[in-house]
Amino acid sequence: MFKLSEIKELIKLVDESSVQELEIENEGSRLSIRKPGKTEYVQAAAVQPQVIAAPQVQPAAAVSEAAPQVDTTSHLHKIVSPMVGTFYRASSPEAGPFVSAGDKVVEKTTVCIIEAMKLMNELDADIKGEIVEVLVENGQLVEYGQPLFLVKPE
Q1: Tens-digit pLDDT profile for residues 46-75
Q2: Positive or negative, the Cα torsion across 143, 85, 36, 90?
Q3: Which residues face 131 on adjacent strands?
Q4: Distance between CA atoms of 92 and 52, rounded to whole angstroms?
């Protein structure tokens, strides 16, 4: 695990340099520091081993008869996670979700909270439209860049 003093020193070094992103893995912990524009954030999470399933192989006859896959979500906007953390649909366990499928949103509408390192980070929709689908479950661990919502833009 990284010490807070080490993280602060690394943030300072990245801020004072031309480096835009720094990732370090040490003893099962990962630290990422990114500097998009003038804003910065830090994320650290324990590295979780991932199991990758072997691809399913279809018999040759089934492959030739299968219909081609059509991407029906290409016209939809994806709201993605800006960090590694835990996804929450509501501000508390007793509260209703920020948004559900069918809800209209604008750029400043809060759609969820991502908890990272005991900090609650509200995520805004960043687009005007209608929520078509919520792609993750409440309390689920999400990765950087993972799609969370599909939105039909207006």
Answers
A1: 555 555 555 555 555 544 455 555 556 678
A2: positive
A3: 151
A4: 33
